[in-house]
């Protein structure tokens, strides 16, 4: 039986939400998520407040979390060395997530840096993480295609993964930031990366139309992926992407899929249902 790692991403769910969510509500929500049993929670970012105003209170939120006996790891996104240094000051944080795109155009759009500059930044972030005992996960966006005019094929993806490997990266989330991945691409990519880079853990971070989630998850899982990101109710979308209406894979769909596969995902379902109700109240559905 494969061990499945589910990562809940309230940051991704909330960052594009137009109305600012009160800090105390965020804290209460994430504390509830910590009781569910997820492998990790991606709950904030140390980036420019102008770029992502919803996450401007991340330092306060992180400081106020009550991890207790929870084994769930805390992920935050950083886009530069300053963000990594700030995030590394918090014992609650376990993992620094770095957004890196194989698309030059999207990397500039997302972080205002070229891919070459971004690799240098990542190298510095790795040095910071090593000194402060943090893990690093790279979110490799445009992994399944490129609508921004840059060349794309699986060989290009593999070449970038090789460069990330040389930097010492051990976890890479293959990200479909704008929801364009196709099942054949997903299968080919995960089979290729799991064959060539057995020392790296590859995850799937899909944005998807509601009717496409099952085939995307099935394609990745059947091709060796055991790590999946999701958001409750499929809420969210990248504020820097061309189509912000493409939400994340719904976490409840992931749970349904793996429960049907007789996989023990070790979640407290009653706590999860409580978190869903909490999320509805949080964004006032």
Describe the structure.
Residues 239-244 have low confidence and may be disordered. This protein has an 8-stranded parallel β-barrel, surrounded by 6 helices. The protein has one domain: Alpha-Beta Barrel (TIM Barrel). 41% of the residues lie in helices and 16% in strands. It has 285 residues and is α/β, with parallel strands linked by helices. The chain contains 11 helices and 8 strands. It has helices at residues 10-14, 23-33, 58-63, 81-87, 104-111, 115-132, 154-167, 183-196, 213-222, 251-260, 269-283, and strands spanning 5-8, 40-46, 73-78, 95-101, 135-141, 171-176, 201-206, 227-230.
> Any idea what the CATH architecture is?
Alpha-Beta Barrel
Determine the CATH superfamily.
Aldolase class I
User: Helix-strand pattern, N to C?
Assistant: EHHEHEHEHHEHEHEHEHH
Integer average pLDDT: 90
Rg, rounded, reads 17 Å
Per CATH, the class reads Alpha Beta
Q: What separation lies between the terminal Cα atoms?
A: 37 Å
In total, how many domains does the architecture comprise?
1
Largest sheet: 8 strands, parallel, barrel
Strand order of the largest sheet: 1-2-3-4-5-6-7-8
- Give the number of helices: 11
Q: What is this structure's SSE topology?
A:
Elements: E1 5-8, H1 10-14, H2 23-33, E2 40-46, H3 58-63, E3 73-78, H4 81-87, E4 95-101, H5 104-111, H6 115-132, E5 135-141, H7 154-167, E6 171-176, H8 183-196, E7 201-206, H9 213-222, E8 227-230, H10 251-260, H11 269-283
Parallel strand pairs: 1-2, 1-8, 2-3, 3-4, 4-5, 5-6, 6-7, 7-8
Helix pairs in contact: 2-11, 7-8, 8-9
